[in-house]
Write a structure and sequence with these properties.
alpha+beta; five-stranded mixed β-sheet; three-stranded antiparallel β-sheet
């Protein structure tokens, strides 16, 4: 029970408020009882005559007779004046006599009654005592007032009323004070569980209302901050995944490059050793020297392309773009390849929109066009055509290069842009390809934000590039 009270703010506020109300009401009751004014129904002037009579009666009397006379007058004061007055007798020294006996004293002196209302002072001299005494009457301060009597009679009812009012007031005060705090506590627990969907609704404008509004603002800001953090984490995770994929691609690329370089080097080494030692067929040095030179040329091309890839894949590499006339660039490169097309027995047809301009790196785009035109020449038989088209649309510029008489297996098309991938190894050796041409084209176009696709057509194979 005690633990529950300690853990509940509403219970603690209820008990503390009820206790404080009971204490305040009790203190108020005691103060009224203590400081309530005395109420008298008679005035001192009414007993002035009694003072004179008493003075006359006591004068020239024996001291032993005095107590009887005093008692008689006390009875008169009690009956006729409701005991509202009291008789005081003082010696000449100022000490008050404890009536009805003259042998003892009350401990008070004459000066104690100077500020009190009293009757006229009367002098007394007894027959058997030459000492002079002073006599007067004052109001009886020991008589309880009517207010105190009323309070005493009403105390049981007042106790019940005080308790009931304290409990009811404490209940409503507790409800008013703790209801918004309980809501705030529930919302804070909800926020601690990373749930920011709830809001603390209140129309109060005091400090509790300000706290509720501040908590609502904090909840909204935390939602926004967490959302931004999640987006940043997702972006970071995507960057990490991309970096891992790139690292994996680099490892695979260099592993493949090592293998591709090892093969021609091993062939050249074997041919040179055979010619050096004049073993068997290698005695025909002229033939194998020509083969070694051809392999060396292929190896040189591969190294050159590896250097190009290394430069393009360098972290932070940015191509230098400027406005260039793509139409003129394509026409220039087709002109440069005219001799090769004629040697292959190919005819070229062009449909190029004039003055098509884009932002790009002249040298890189020239390299990409050379690779695409070189592939078209290499993989088309004599008598076929190379169809080159360029046109400009609302938001894109499209370039297509189609070479007839060629075909690529459908399962091989998704792999064409992988480094060192060759559709046909034997045919690749005939054409002298390294398997890096399309990979370089894809890398260059990615730097320019362009897309490239390769597909089979009825006539042959078409490469489509969209800037």
């Amino acid at each position: 029970m005690i633990r529950k009270i300690k853990s509940k703010l509403s219970i603690k506020v209820f008990f503390i408020t009820a206790l404080l109300l009971v204490i305040c009401c009790s203190i108020t009751y005691l103060c009224i009882a203590r400081f309530a004014p005395y109420i008298y129904t008679h005035e001192l002037s009414e007993v002035e005559e009694i003072t004179d009579i008493l003075s006359v009666e006591l004068s020239d009397r024996q001291i032993e007779e005095v107590p009887y006379i005093i008692s008689t007058f006390n009875e008169i004061l009690s009956k006729e004046y409701d005991n509202e007055f009291i008789i005081h007798v003082f010696q000449s020294s100022g000490e008050e006599v404890a009536l009805p006996n003259f042998d003892t004293f009350t401990g008070k002196v004459f000066s104690d009654y100077k500020k009190m209302e009293r009757t006229q002072e009367q002098s007394l001299i007894f027959a058997d005592n030459t000492n002079e005494y002073i006599l007067f009457l004052t109001k009886n301060t020991n008589k309880e007032s009517q207010i105190i009597e009323a309070l005493q009679k009403s105390f049981p009812i007042l106790s019940i009323i005080i308790f009931a009012v304290s409990v009811i007031a404490a209940f409503f005060y507790t409800w008013y004070l703790t209801k918004p705090i309980i809501k705030i506590s529930q919302l804070s627990k909800q926020m601690s569980n990373m749930d920011f969907s709830g809001l603390c609704s209140t129309t109060r404008t005091d400090e509790i209302g300000v706290l509720s509004d501040s908590l609502n603002d904090l909840s909204k800001k935390l939602v926004a901050a967490l959302s931004e953090l999640q987006e940043a984490n997702q972006k970071l995770q995507a960057d990490i995944d991309m970096e891992r994929r790139l690292e994996k691609q680099r490892v695979e690329f260099f592993a493949a490059a090592s293998h591709e370089l090892k093969t021609p080097i091993t062939i050249i080494k074997g041919q040179l050793q055979g010619m050096l030692y004049q073993v068997g067929r290698y005695k025909d040095r002229e033939t194998y020297l020509a083969q070694s030179l051809e392999i060396t040329d292929t190896l040189g091309k591969m190294v050159q392309e590896l250097l190009t890839i290394s430069r393009l894949d360098t972290p932070g590499y940015i191509c230098k773009k400027s406005s260039l006339n793509l139409s003129n660039l394509i026409i220039d490169r087709v002109t440069a390849f005219e001799d090769l097309f004629m040697q292959k027995g190919l005819t070229v047809e062009q449909s190029i929109y004039p003055e098509v301009c884009i932002l790009g790196d002249m040298q890189l785009l020239q390299k990409a066009l050379d690779n695409l035109l070189g592939n078209a020449a290499a993989y088309s038989g004599a008598g076929n055509q190379v169809l080159i088209k360029l046109w400009n649309e609302t938001e894109t510029t499209t370039l297509t290069i189609e070479n007839t008489g060629a075909h690529i297996p459908d399962e091989a098309i998704p792999k064409l842009f992988e480094p060192f991938y060759r559709v046909d190894q034997s045919r690749n050796r005939q054409t002298g390809g390294t398997g890096l041409g399309l990979y370089i084209v894809k890398t260059i176009l990615d730097l320019h934000g362009a897309k490239i696709e390769i597909a089979n057509t009825i006539q042959g194979v078409i490469v489509s590039v969209q800037f």
